[in-house]
Amino acid sequence: MRTYHIFYILIVSTAEYNLQAPTVLRQGLSDIRLPYNIMNINSRKAVKTCRMEIIRFSDEMKKRFGGKVYRIPLSSGCTCPNRDGTVGIGGCAFCSAQGAGEFSFPDIPVREQFEYGKKLISGKTKADKFIGYFQSFTNTYGDQDRLKAMFRETIEIPEVCALSVATRPDCLEEGMVDYLAWLSDIKPVWVELGLQTSNDATGERMNRCFGRETFEKAYGRLKRAGLEVIIHIILGLPGEDREDMLETGRYVSALSPEIDGIKIHMLQVLKGTTLAKQYLNEPFHILTLEEYTEIVISILSMLPAHTVVHRFTGDGAKNLLIEPRWSWEKKKVLNYMNGRISKA
Length: 344
Prior knowledge:
Mean pLDDT: 84
Order of helices and strands: EEHEHEHEHEHHEHEEHHEEH
CATH topology: TIM Barrel
Low-confidence stretches: 1-52
Helix content: 25-40%
Structural class: alpha/beta
Number of helices: 10
Radius of gyration: 19 Å
CATH class: Alpha Beta
Distance between the termini: 24 Å
Number of domains: 1
Strand content: 15-25%
CATH architecture: Alpha-Beta Barrel
Strand order of the largest sheet: 2-1-10-8-7-6-5-4-3
Shape: globular
Oligomer: single chain
CATH superfamily: Aldolase class I
């Protein structure tokens, strides 16, 4: 049986756009649909079928860093301002008690975390290049000197080829942005911003505790500093229909400067979260694999040229996942999505 791996893709297009963008957000981008290519996932070369190509992230990483690259999740020991009472309590409704850090090890020094993560991966691959990924909670929220030292320590690890820092748009002090930009002169630095939805009403229901204006200001500040920005969005949030999700796709696709990367997630209902309590008390619609895939394809077709799609699906900790149960079958999900994308 053939196994397919296509978590990361880069959209490249020769299409020309005449879109005016005097501010952070371009105005009036329609839900256009562009033809594109899908690579043969058993081949290192893209198969040209239309005007656009989708190139595997792994191939791009080989081109950029000279070899296969894996993320190693790291913990900075931070929390979030909508957990500790600064702007809210309880955190985002969909976020677990680990703050998306189920696969990191917060109780040991960062270098030991890295070595442990590398050891886990070494049994599956001979890769010797890694991305130090500060994933859980808000990794720029806390003692700035401590965090800067941790980021510097990580980026100086010889096997680390890039640093990736996940955070909120309301937790980016000028000094931290400047420091990350300075680190990017040593090795690439990516900032991962959790937008989740462009609908502020949904954001409020999910206890996100920031709005589009805050996001746009943070995005502009990061781009002016020369940093690569990866935006996270979630499809299937309660109260949102297909049009709401497509509007989030339009919103991120219209940002100026253009987004460097995106991670598209399906909503996961996890045990112990506020969302799980809501779902168990009053179940809401969970996207089917078919519904989710069609929306992903529509959003992929909107993205600007050269936007790296770091993820278009995901798998949560099985001991916590309530829904969608179809996401448990990772190979089946990837095979289905790759097949649908190839025919889009």
